[in-house]
Amino acid sequence: MSHYFIGIKVHSEISEKLMNWQSILRETMNYKDWTAKADLHVTLKFLGSCSDERIERYVQRLKNESWPSEYSLTVGPAGGFGDQERPRVFHAQVEKAPSLLETKEKVDGIGEKLGFQKEKREFNPHITLAKKQAEGVSPLMEASEDSVLFETYEMVVNEFSIFRIHPGKHPKYETVATIKGGQKI
Questions:
Q1: What is the enclosing helix (H) or strand (E) of 176?
Q2: What is the CATH number of domain 2-180?
Q3: Tens digits of per-residue pLDDT, 107-116?
Q4: Is 170 a residue of the active site?
Q5: Active site residue: 3, 11, 91, 126, which one?
Q6: Which of 65, 70, 75, 132 registers the highest number of CB atoms within 10 A of its CB?
Q7: What's the pTM?
């Protein structure tokens, strides 16, 4: 069985900016896992290991719902989870916009009806740039407020996807299905 998650793919123009952040991070820190440009996303729900049939049922339920049409998310500034000097995850923060929260709630609700457990942790939207920190010091510790790491960008969202995870590949996320906003299929 494969592992899956539901998320929002990051647009290419923002991916370029986040890859610049990642290059700054590489100058001061050594992580075990660097996110490929094609894999940048905002996770809505991690599904874990499940059959293709179970995923197909989830896709059909998602496609039968109405979703927020088009909305904007603010991406940035950079941040980290864990020790701020040596965060275990370095990421771009993502705004908790009402339409994003509505989408997250509906995705969770449908998942619960299909037997997927609801996440117990608070939803903290972000785009992971690197994780499994090995050594170094975060560039945020010495960055001035005019650093690109403190910039924010607007990203328009009108869809989300279900991804299959291929741990040994690079990039490692394969789009299985895409759900468009503002419409039922």
A1: strand 173-180
A2: 3.90.1140.10
A3: 999 999 999 9
A4: no
A5: 126
A6: 75
A7: 0.94
